[in-house]
Design brief:
With about 475 residues, this protein is an all-alpha fold. The chain folds into 2 domains: about 210 residues, no CATH class; about 180 residues, no CATH class. It is about 80% helix and about 0% strand. The longest helix is centred in the first third of the chain and has 39 residues. The protein is globular, with a radius of gyration of 23 Å.
Length: about 475
């Protein structure tokens, strides 16, 4: 981004007692007719089944949330260490980080495509094929990482210049970007390995690896920046070394397991082509999301500094709340893929219904809390009265949109788990096409102050998310999505 339990559950394959489909086996009192042993009646079968499904979801979602939170800590650690060097250094590192994370963000498909591919084969009891799918994802990550690293090193001056950097700031940005490039293949290997373990129903190992990686990153950066006097380049080197350490741990865990199941470790051409085909669709989906976010920032910039500042604060809250929803979506990817691979569409449907309820419930709860906190939240970040008022307006809209957020994140995870990458990418383009005219209307109206942020977030938090929700709900209106395997 191992616990002994996580490693055993992945290696044992179909006989794993923690597999969620086991709740449907004859040992279930509801199906076997075995009466309750206690003299006190237990909960009704339906309630018991829901509790079992809930426990299964939480067993994957909670560690996934921890790993997701650990990743931004790399950026926070880099910022804190570089921030004491000077303003130019901080600005340059921030610019380099933006370019790097944009590239890595577009490669998130390496995790999202590997998870359902591995999970389907794992659910079907084909551990060798599951590990082979993971191997293909790792080789694709290594190849893409090598190409992007070489291109990034050569293009660093042009990329930072295109972002508007000049002078010392550009020099530090180039340093950060270039010395991050040796670690780029490792970053992508970590994505693919994380997706493989998620497909094997193990989200605890990525949490442990991510936590260890964060700790080593802090130590390495401190030593290289201050001890060795390497300035901004030192923090990039430290992060690269930490990422290679994480990648090495993952390879040490996965390669012996693959050999034990007779999986050839070399690249497989057909497997790489299949992984690349699914990945290209998911990359297009991610690109449409990025365009929506960047277009929103562009409009916010044109509406004035106060609007841009308030939008950034509201978007930060949106991103923070998205971590919990993304953890639920990751659980959906792993569980839906596994149950469809095991030939349990009824259980996949029940898991979908349960996670949709959880997503909506989370949205209602966080929306209510956010609505109450909206008038006061801006004061935590800025003393400027105009920005605080605009932030409150945006947070009220975000509060109203939270149930939509929950629905969208969960259904996105469900369809990724089903391998429905092509539909998701096309639906993303449709949603973007519906959203951009709304942004144009906000820009043309040229509102100011709190009204600007209110209308901007009405377009994004309600209009864009509603378009995404509509396309996702349309897809799951029947069971055809369960057979939409892209690889």
């Amino acid at each position: 981004m191992t616990s002994d339990g996580g490693a055993r559950s992945s290696a044992d394959g179909p006989s794993d007692p923690e597999r969620p489909s086991d709740v449907e086996r004859p040992s279930d009192p509801e199906r076997s007719g075995i009466p309750e042993r206690s003299g006190v009646p237990g909960p009704p079968p339906g309630v018991r089944r829901q509790r079992e499904l809930g426990g299964t979801i939480l067993r994957l979602a909670v560690p996934a949330l921890g790993a997701l939170i650990a990743e931004p800590l790399f950026l926070i650690a880099d910022t804190a260490i570089v921030g004491h060097l000077g303003v130019d250094e901080l600005a340059g590192a921030g610019l380099g980080t933006t370019v790097l994370h944009t590239a890595v963000g577009l490669m998130i498909f390496l995790a999202y495509s590997t998870t359902p591919s591995v999970a389907r084969r794992f659910g079907a009891g084909r551990m060798d094929q599951a590990l082979a799918a993971g191997r293909d994802g790792l080789w694709l990550a290594l190849a893409l990482g090598a190409v992007l690293a070489a291109a990034g090193w050569a293009a660093a001056p042009a990329l930072t210049g295109a972002m508007g950097a000049t002078g010392q700031v550009q020099g530090f940005a180039i340093d950060y970007l270039r010395w991050s490039m040796p670690g780029l293949p490792a970053m992508l290997l970590v994505l693919a390995a994380t997706g493989t373990l998620r497909g094997l129903q193990d989200t605890r190992t990525p949490l442990v690896v991510a936590a260890a990686g964060f700790g080593s990153n802090v130590v390495l950066n401190f030593v290289l920046v201050y001890g060795a006097g390497l300035s901004v380049a030192g923090t990039a080197m430290g992060t690269s070394l930490a990422q290679w350490g994480m990648a090495a741990v993952y390879l040490r865990l996965l390669l012996p397991r693959a050999r034990a199941h007779g999986v050839r470790l070399g690249p497989d051409r057909a497997g790489l082509v299949a992984a690349g085909r699914v990945g290209s669709w998911l990359m297009l989906r991610t690109l449409s999301l990025r365009v929506a976010v960047l277009a929103t920032v562009w409009v916010a910039t044109g509406l004035g500094t106060a609007t841009l500042a308030a939008h950034q604060l509201v978007f930060t809250v949106f991103t923070f709340l998205a971590f919990a929803l993304d953890a639920l979506a990751i659980a959906a990817q792993a569980l839906i893929g596994k149950e469809l691979g095991a030939g349990n569409p009824a259980l996949a449907r029940r898991l979908t219904s349960t996670m949709v309820r959880w997503g909506l419930g989370f949205g209602v709860a966080t929306g209510a809390a956010l609505a109450l906190a909206a008038p006061f939240a801006g004061a935590l970040f800025t003393p400027d009265a105009e920005v605080r008022a605009a932030t409150a307006a945006g947070l009220w809209v975000l509060a109203a949109a939270q149930p939509l957020c929950g629905l969208v994140f969960v259904l996105d995870g469900v369809l990724i788990g089903a391998g429905d990458a092509r539909y998701l990418s096309l639906a993303g383009l449709v949603s973007l096409a519906a959203y951009l005219p709304l942004l144009w209307l906000v820009s043309a109206a040229d509102p100011r102050g709190a009204a600007a942020v209110l209308w901007l977030w009405a377009a994004f938090g309600v209009g864009y998310l509603a378009a995404r929700a509509a396309t996702l709900l349309w897809r799951i209106r029947d069971d055809r999505w369960m057979g939409a395997v892209a690889a």
